[in-house]
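Me: I hope this is not a bother. Any chance you could explain this protein sequence and its structure tokens? It all follows right here:
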Amino acid sequence: MNITYISLDGHVELQKYRYLYFLIMLTGYILILSCNSTIVYLIVIHKNLHEPMYMFIASLLINSIIFSTVIYPKLLTDFLSEKQIVSYQFCLMQVFSFYSSSCSEYLLLAAMAFDRYVSICKPLHYHSIMTKRTVIIFLLLAWFVPPCHIVVPVIGRANAMLCSFSLKAIFCNNSVNYLFCVASKALMTYGLVVLFNLALFPMLFILFTYTVIIIVASRSCREVRRKAAQTCLPHLLVLINYSCLFSYDMIIVRLESNISKTVRFVMTVQMMMCNPLFNPIIYGLKIKEIYKHLRQLFYKVGVK
């Protein structure tokens, strides 16, 4: 069986700093796993957190773990290897997993925005609308719709002819588009459809939803405004942070030759570390009920 290998040429002075890179990224990966897992654990074991909003938060944090696990193990191995290569088949699998989890994040944030809209704008109907069945449907859509979209271009590129075997990245992402001899117009058009369905449309929905929430809250009593600020601000911070990082990944491919290797490397590392760490920190500190249980957990650990 013929196996095609792709070299990952996005590393900067790897021979000189390989052990420093490895230590930093390993520390980051451990922090991502521990921080996200801790918040998920608290949501699972405490019954007062078994509500739609917390279920969506737990799903978002699980998605961050998946997102990181798609990248970090292979990256850590590359830091200690003499050659940074990856088989073309594994590269496509990484592209599929990376963008599936990335797009799931937008759909989960959209579900959370709808949950906050119902809670603040239609409080009397909240429990009749946000039922267990509704939550399950939203979660299934968030987990399965992106893979169904992403699998099409991945399969379409599986047997495509390659004219380049060098990827200007440290893991497989949109840069694989520059490996092909001929760009498929059909797949490029389909990619725009995927981008709209899984990123732009959810973002527009989220912005519209929070605009309505802000308008309703501004016309309501102080307690409603406090509730809106307390529960919506963390979601908006996460959305802004993730949108900036996701936009970077989309734009960087278009600037293939107009950005230095060092800047590309630093921005990629920042994208890989910031969002998976940002989410549990924001939700752990800004969501009152989660923070309360988190503080109790650390108090018990400190006493022991």
Q: What stands out?
A: The two ends are 56 Å apart (CA to CA). The domain at 5-303 is CATH 1.20.1070.10 (Rhopdopsin 7-helix transmembrane proteins). The chain has one domain: 5-303.
